[in-house]
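thought: fold this chain, then report.
action: predict
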Amino acid sequence: GPVKMGAALYDPQGARLTKNGKPVKLTSAEAALLGLFAANTGRPFSRSDLCSRLGVALERSIDVQVTRLRRKIEDDPKLPLYLQTVRGVGYVLVPDRG
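observation:
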């Protein structure tokens, strides 16, 4: 079902993101990354794992996509509640419960 992250809601079926009920445009790269996180909530992924799963060459580009997604999802992208950094590992999506 839908993945709730504060004011943001991601619908995996239609690969749609809304915030405060308004549609948020995702690039295909952002949609692929968010889709992977949403299907594996609470599971940390390393940058290299994300690269291989998404067919991305540079780990740096994963960081860029994560930053862009945070701007679209988080209330404060500098203090992310949902798309969290796991020190020494990579990133994890922690949605609201229920």
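thought: worth noting. The mean pLDDT is 96.
final: tokens above.
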